[in-house]
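F.,

This is the one I mentioned.
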């Protein structure tokens, strides 16, 4: 049997905290994303790319543009950091 549900569902902060007050909307999103199309979920995408601690609490599953922006921003900064880091080791004073 293939895995069809998102592996993060039992612990997903979004559904366990943020969506508690919106049970109907929550069930709709869960049915679509968590139980079928989790690879399209913005939270899943950020989690895979940047780790659980970098997923904003209020990021909604459909906010994939925001997910991409966060990932690009993170890569940009770590890139910059790496560059300045190696530049630092090259220039011995
Ligand atoms: S919201 Fe996204 S990360 Fe959270 S359980 Fe659903 S599919 Fe997985």
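My design for it:
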């Amino acid at each position: 049997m293939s895995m069809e549900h998102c592996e993060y569902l039992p612990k997903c902060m979004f559904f366990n905290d943020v969506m508690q007050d919106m049970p109907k909307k929550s069930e709709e999103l869960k049915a679509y994303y968590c139980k079928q199309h989790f690879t399209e979920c913005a939270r899943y995408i950020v989690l895979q790319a940047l780790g659980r601690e970098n997923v904003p609490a209020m990021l909604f599953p459909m906010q994939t543009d925001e997910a991409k922006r966060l990932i690009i921003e993170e890569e940009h900064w770590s890139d910059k950091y790496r560059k300045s880091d190696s530049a630092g080791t090259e220039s011995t004073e």
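The pocket of iron/sulfur cluster is lined by residues 6, 8-9, 12, 14, 33-34, 38, 41, 43-44, 47, 61 (CB under 6 Å).

Talk soon.
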